[in-house]
Amino acid sequence: MGEIRPFTEEFSSDAADLYLRSMRGQPGRHSEALRKYFGHIFLCNPWVAPDITPLVYLDKGKLVGFLCVIPRTMEFRGRLIRVAVTSQLMVDSAVHRGIPGLELLRHVLKGPQDMSYTDGAADVVGTIWTAAGGHIARLYCLNWSRVLRPLETGRGLLDRGGGSWRVLKGISGLATMPGDFVLSKLPLGLFRPPSSSCATRPVSARELLACIQEIGWREPLKPVYETTSFIWMMSEAAQAHTQGDLRMVTVQDPKGVICGWFAYWAKRGGAAYVLQIGVRRRDQFDLTLLALLRDAWDAGCAVVKGQAIPQFLTHLTRQHCLFRQPDACVLVHSRDSDLVNVVRTGEAAISRLDGECWLRFAAEDWT
């Protein structure tokens, strides 16, 4: 039986090595940047609390398991609750199988938080969660995508093939840009540049937070943001340069009244990854979504991708969005069955800013 201990700076190097082996399949030593990132994100974030901490699993003094835990605050039916957001559940498979992961998760789920949550878990992690009493929030597992430039989107898929496919990608670039330009002139709504009657304004993190706090959400479960921690989080997200440029934008209706907002990573010639989109009224979602699509088009993105917003699935479909369920899944656990059911039925105002998807682990080349 191993020993579970809180994560401290002394474990940063071993945790970084374990990350490369278990999550990237890359043997060898970690980079100094990755070691520092572990300590910075998990020990120096503005939500650090002594009773909800990242954990390590030691076997005869050797680190063979790790589970990140970041405490966050949400509001549930008018009362503040504590949420343990988990990330990077890792086990050294050369030494152990699933036991350290299950023990680490069980230890976290017994903590003082009202709810435990993650939004980037692989299938195997979902199996561990359900074995420990957690649930899969299937409505939030769906991702949507809206193709803006179909030929450039197809060209981007060649990257996944590697080898000679990447050579083909370089050659195809000579045709995709003019080809997409021609398609955009066709009288077909799917191919034409998105348009919206709303005006948009790029804003700072502080201005975005002011908009969010002024508009808010009507769902029974919603995030609670505080100025210092929100600005810190958006600053961290802005450093994910391989994902693109972080854009934070407010949306004004034709009368000049702010009706919504969105935040996303914009990568010219690549994907726009939506972190959050919010609206003042339900009937303003289509206008706000179109403003997002237009902004992504102007930024040169080929496709826009986001996490499903259950109450707006029909709206997304109307704007030619396609849905798929990737390998990653959204998981929730709570001793309060009402809280769990709100998430499982899609009645929570949760986005990629409220889980682990804004972190830079998957986005960076840590070698």
Helix count from the secondary structure assignment: 12
Please state roughly what percent of the residues sit in beta strands, choosing from under 5%, 5-15%, 15-25%, 25-35%, 35-45% or over 45%. 25-35%
Strand elements, count: 15
The CATH superfamily label of the largest domain reads Gcn5-related N-acetyltransferase (GNAT)
Ranges where pLDDT stays below 50 over 5 or more residues in a row are: none
- Please name the CATH architecture of the largest domain: 3-Layer(aba) Sandwich
Question: How do you describe this structure in short?
Answer:
The protein has 367 residues and is of the alpha+beta class. Helix content is 35%, strand content 26%. The radius of gyration is 21 Å and the shape is globular.
Question: Can you tag this structure with a few keywords?
Answer:
367 residues, alpha+beta, Aminopeptidase, 7-stranded mixed sheet, 15 strands, globular
Please characterize this protein's 3D structure:
By secondary structure, this protein is an alpha+beta fold. The chain folds into two domains: 138 residues, Aminopeptidase, CATH 3.40.630.30; 138 residues, Aminopeptidase, CATH 3.40.630. It has twelve helices and 15 strands. The strands form two sheets. Strands 1, 2, 3, 4, 5, 6, 9 and 15 form an eight-stranded mixed sheet that branches.
Topology of this protein?
Layout: E1 3-6, H1 12-23, H2 32-43, E2 55-59, E3 62-76, E4 79-91, H3 99-109, E5 115-121, H4 123-131, E6 135-136, H5 138-141, E7 143-147, H6 150-157, H7 164-184, E8 199-202, H8 205-215, E9 221-223, H9 227-238, E10 245-252, E11 258-266, E12 271-279, H10 285-298, E13 303-307, H11 313-318, E14 322-324, E15 329-333, H12 337-344
Parallel strand pairs: 4-5, 12-13
Antiparallel strand pairs: 1-2, 2-3, 3-4, 3-9, 5-15, 6-15, 7-13, 7-14, 8-10, 10-11, 11-12
